[in-house]
């Protein structure tokens, strides 16, 4: 069935009239780890705690703090039911727009409509893969980690880094931070959802492409799981099938990235992206509802996305340092290089600015003037108070990482920092902002009987 309650809740969750406000605590991606734990019949454990101190400013589990909130039980086929095994499939960038506009009649979606539950959730903010990967691997909200985007300023390094690739922003060498003697535990939260599940008797398996598995990111945040790198999605499914009979209780995490890749290259509204989304659902239908799965019992299948994408017109990108060259003198300097802390954010869909205190009001007002009708400019503090980064007060490292101002472009708009051959918006589809195209995601659940 379609859970209309979730659709209506997301429709009503608005920030500043132009944006979607994340529904932390109800219909939001943030509730998935807690829900998986409950679905497996486990009591809440200390992986859900956070603190404002050690462990890179994120969660160390050493204090008594608020629990993260699970999803409403109505998103599951039998509210309150538990299962021996949970299969969680994360299809990167499979936004709600694909289902609503093109895929509601697809056999895979119709199966969930008839025998399971189809719900709409919001992404977290920023609507990026790094944020949602961290939530799934650690149980932490964006405010608890401060690791917010493809590029962000890491005070431990003293420079802007790309956390998923573990390298300095703009650097082409693989995992270059290793050459700087950096320690992953000083950057990433020392927490692993999979390790906690293992302590409670549930084996975890993580199926990801071999190009980034294993990696410093996964090693630091998914320890306790068995990693299963694959070349093709079909290989991953074969490996998953083989492991389904190994354990009495298990959690299987499958990450698929082709929809994201194609949407970036051609734009999410392109025929190629729509076709890729259709191919993905056809693959999932044949993989998870064939003969091999007929004997599965006491197993719940979850399929969702981390975010959607919005189309990008490369001719309309606003590069703020071209529009206002003087902005460079207003920004804080990176301790490693002495250069302005740029660019921080997600390829035009948000821009985090580290501004010197004496120039904060001037910079906010000037950018609001330049970007009028195309984007809105907020202080980080205001978005924190509005609950855009989560329901808890941010951890200690958050503000050092997030900076002072955030530029939020409207749907279809892009605002970024220009540096020839290094920092430019080059892709026709992007994400990271608060538009409905980026923030609205499907959440499909079905139990095997």
Describe what this molecule looks like in 3D.
The chain has 449 residues and is an alpha/beta fold. The protein has 2 domains: 4-127 and 185-310 and 440-448, Alkaline Phosphatase, subunit A; 314-430, Gyrase A, domain 2 (2-Layer Sandwich), CATH 3.30.1360. The chain contains 16 helices and 20 strands. It has a 7-stranded mixed beta sheet with strand order 4-20-11-3-10-8-9, sandwiched between helices. A hairpin with a 4-residue loop joins strand 6 (159-162) and strand 7 (167-168). The chain is globular. The model is unreliable at 46-67 (pLDDT under 50).
Globally, the shape reads globular
How many domains in all? 2
Number of distinct helices? 16
CATH architecture of the largest domain: 3-Layer(aba) Sandwich
Strand content: 15-25%
Please tell me how large the radius of gyration is.
21 Å
Number of strands: 20
How do the strands of the widest beta sheet line up side by side?
A: 4-20-11-3-10-8-9
- What oligomeric state do the depicted chains represent? single chain
Report the mean per-residue pLDDT as an integer: 92
Distance separating the two termini: 17 Å
Task: Extract low-pLDDT stretches.
Answer: 46-67
Decide which structural class fits the backbone: alpha/beta
The CATH topology annotation of the largest domain reads as Alkaline Phosphatase, subunit A
Instruction: Describe the sheet with the most strands.
Output: 7 strands, mixed
* Helical coverage, percent range: 25-40%
CATH domain class name of the largest domain: Alpha Beta
